[in-house]
Amino acid sequence: MSMAAAALRRSMAEPIYNKVLHQEVGRGKLDYEVYVRTRELLALQTPADELVVPDELLFIVQHQTQELWLKCAIFECANLVERLDGDLPFPALESLDRIVHIVQILRDQIRVLGALSPSQFQVIRRSLGNGSGLESPGYNQLLAAAEAAGSALGRLVERRGATLLDIYQEPEDHPDVHRLAERFVDWDGTFQTWLVEHFMLVRRTMGVDKTVRALDGFPTAALFGRATKPLFAELWNVRVEMTQGWSREGGFVPGEQRCPYSGAMGA
Q: Is residue 10 part of a domain?
């Protein structure tokens, strides 16, 4: 290690004087530090001199922050169920928006681990025991919370005296429920792309093959099927039903004269 790098590491381990505040930051005594509990939070990672490779810190922090974001998403899932059961579509949309944005963060932040070379990951992997994503508390809780949220959406649809197919074929009759259902699809689609990103990370660091097994014992070749399993299958199946009942009748021959639009806005 260069002398400059060594000096920087030593200085970053000490409180820093803030010239605006005229105080030292990092002792854990300022209001921000107390509220966020930064001393405890930043002590949860393996010390730098104990890392098996320098990139292990990145690996740990990514998974720790992932669990925190999942905790937030699960909290919003409970809010979502309460709001759906209370026939409060707009507050429910607020919760859905937050869930979608959180899962987008999970999808995007996992890409940072693409900076790990296979050789670095193989070293880190030796210290993980049999740990795998299937053991993540947040991941398992999110699956259960999503099931509860999907059931709450189903109850709302039933209270409207409709089916999902009705909602999708005549969205103007129940615009709020249609919007909620589509936001559920956003959640599901983003969730699947998050898991696909994980699959690509595994392919990049370990390789995907029936002979390559994750630490939980499952072959990495099985990950893609798990990644593309939907949270809300009924919301994807309704599209199949619509397409199965589709007809060419009522369309225009390409290039022929078309009538002016006569929908509700143009009537």
A: no
